[in-house]
Write a structure and sequence with these properties.
It contains 10 helices and 19 strands. The chain has helices at 5-9, 18-34, 90-105, 138-155, 223-236, 254-267, 270-274, 335-341, 364-371, 419-424, and strands at residues 39-55, 58-76, 79-85, 159-178, 183-184, 187-201, 204-214, 246-252, 295-297, 320-324, 327-328, 355-357, 374-381, 391-402, 405-418, 426-429, 434-435, 439-441, 444-452.
């Protein structure tokens, strides 16, 4: 896709120019200083998008969104107040700053409140290639969705119904600034194509889905491939049944393996740590994973779905090793949570940035062979995770595996264990990496879990 200089900066795609957002941020900071704030932080953003859903070949929904907003955080010493508005007028800016100050005056002082250290603020932002506008006419979006769904129905007559195929394009730009002199921001985009279908009929029906998401429309999987794969996944689940209660190895399919890494990230994030609500308290420098597991954070990957030059505090992001040979090297901290813990921010206000879990040499089929006999999990249900104790229990569906081969689909079971043991007993990580968000990881094979069935 060719892009003009105007498209690269987003100047011709948005209602407000980047310079306008900068001026609005500057005005807010000036208002806050004049009204007596000791410090101020402001975020100005604008975004728009289009989403289309087709079901059974007919257009079901067409949605357009256009949003803008300003969020203002002010400090009176160590008292903090926050207010926001979607009105960009000068009067609204002054009123919003005043509202934040009024809140701060009635808020108890917090010794950990305040902006991050000035020395940690981001300077010039690198070009991370995060903005790829996809000027998709609604007719073209409908055509893509229809092709996606039609490919699913073409797989087999047993694909009997559809929950729809969707195409979404989203663009946004923002400016973040604070009274320490930091100001940064850039345009971003995110697009996706998805399909969800139902196979079977009567009381014997199964559903499954698949989707592709990327910064660029050109980087998305072909709509026909998405529909085809969604259909094959639904068909493969026909004939699912319970299995007997057992303790066996469990293989988390790559998209679900990312949730397991997400559980780890939550447990070593500042909020859980300073509240002492994590099973991984005081784990820095300790063995959390087996020695073959290494996890890196790479915030500056060009085109990355979680790339960012700075975090929500304005702190510059940087490459780092989170897990080296299974040992925890660092937490995920904002300026506030770092102060609560007596540590320094890691540039993770707002979350992690492109976690890369290095896989082994085995692909998905290789992990099945390594497992031999056990359970392949392709769907998780419920939210049964206790981060204080690490206890893990979730409804699941997937496939029973014998001699490294899938034998039959499985449903209505529960898998259970303890996250501390689960992380420590990862015996394999696949090369089948799926990237849909902030974690990039292949399928993960666990040595053993309790599976509750009949």
């Amino acid at each position: 896709m060719s892009r003009s200089p105007a498209n690269r900066t987003g100047e011709s795609r948005f209602s407000h120019t980047h310079a306008t957002l900068q001026q609005l941020a500057h005005d807010v900071l000036s208002h806050a200083a004049r009204l007596g704030a000791s410090a101020c932080d402001v975020d100005v953003s604008e975004g728009f998008g289009q989403s289309v859903t087709v079901r059974q070949g007919e257009v079901e929904t067409i949605e357009y969104n256009r949003d803008k907003g300003i969020g203002v955080t002010v400090y009176l010493g160590q008292q903090k107040g926050y207010a926001s508005t979607s009105d960009f007028s000068a009067a609204a800016l002054r009123d919003t700053v005043q509202a934040a100050l009024d809140i701060a005056r009635f808020t108890a002082a917090d010794p950990c409140a305040g902006l991050a250290d000035a020395a940690l603020m981001s300077g010039a932002s690198p070009d991370l290639d995060l903005y790829h506008p996809w000027p998709l006419p609604v007719e073209a979006a409908i055509d893509i969705a229809r092709r996606c769904e039609a490919a699913a129905f073409a797989v087999s007559p047993q694909v009997s119904n559809s929950e729809g195929a969707s195409v979404s394009t989203q663009e946004a730009h923002f400016v973040s600034a604070n009274s320490l002199g930091f100001m940064g921001g850039y345009p971003t985009s995110r697009h996706y194509v998805s399909c969800s279908v139902i196979a079977g009929e009567g009381d014997v029906m199964q559903r499954d889905d698949w989707y592709s998401t990327a910064r660029s429309g050109e980087a998305l999987a072909a709509p026909e491939a998405i529909g085809d794969y969604a259909a094959r996944r639904a068909l493969a689940r026909l004939g699912a049944r319970k299995i007997r209660t057992c303790q066996v190895p469990v293989l988390f399919e790559a998209p679900l393996a990312a949730t397991l890494i997400g559980n780890f990230v939550h447990a070593v994030s500042g909020g859980a740590l300073y509240r002492k609500s994590s099973f991984l308290l005081d784990s820095l420098g300790r063995q959390v994973f087996p020695r073959h597991v290494n996890i890196s954070e790479r915030p500056h990957l060009r085109g990355g779905l979680a790339s960012s030059a700075f975090d929500n505090d304005g702190v510059a992001t940087r490459d780092r090793e989170v897990i080296t040979d299974g040992v925890l090297q660092g937490y995920f901290l904002s300026a506030y949570t770092a102060r609560k813990l007596g540590m320094q921010t890691t540039g993770n206000a707002g979350g992690c940035h492109n976690l890369l879990v290095r896989g082994g040499e085995r692909d998905f089929r290789g992990l099945l062979q390594q497992m031999g006999r056990g359970l392949l999990v392709t769907e998780l249900l419920g939210h049964g995770v206790n981060y204080v104790t690490g206890d893990y229990s979730r409804g699941a569906a997937g496939y029973w595996v014998e001699n490294g081969e899938i034998v039959h689909p499985v449903e209505e079971i529960t898998i259970a264990g303890n996250l501390r043991d689960m992380l420590a007993n990862i015996v394999g990580i696949g090369s089948d990496v799926v990237c849909r968000g902030s974690k990039q990881v292949g399928s993960i094979l666990l040595e053993r879990m309790q599976v509750a069935g009949n």
